[in-house]
Amino acid sequence: xxxxxxxxxxxxxxxxxxxxxxxxxxxxxxxxxxxxxxxxxxxxxxxxxxxxxxxxxxxxxxxxxxxxxxxxxxxxxxxxxxxxxxxxxxxxxxxxxxxxxxxxxxxxxxxxxxxxxxxxxxxxxxxxxxxxxxxxxxxxxxxxxxxxxxxxx
Length: 153
Description:
This protein is of the alpha/beta class. Helices cover 44% and strands 14% of the residues. A 6-stranded mixed β-sheet has the order 3-2-1-4-5-6, sandwiched between helices. Helix 1 packs parallel to helix 5 and helix 3 packs antiparallel against helix 4.
């Protein structure tokens, strides 16, 4: 993994606590963090953090992230199809709850996501995401630290 590897964030649905962890990591590790969203985002004054606003529309931010990502990068997203797309380009995907998606794990997650979509399409209530907890934030921070350490090697 290259020290020039960057972090791209699917920022529209990313929890504020996760963005704050990323902002601190950007400064501490001098890694570029780019937030992509279809709305204006405030970012701290930093040469390592930037925000890219894309037009509204279905998957516009996802397509922009997929266009920008390179092998070795890390993408922060809850979107399983986007995670699959960036993994196909040699990057890794990290869910804001700390689940790391890799080439070995993404096929099963994509299958489960599609199955749940089918259930919802059939009118079955599958529930939503569980509330975001401190343990999720800690799991994310731990995975991020592992990626940052590997980046230095």
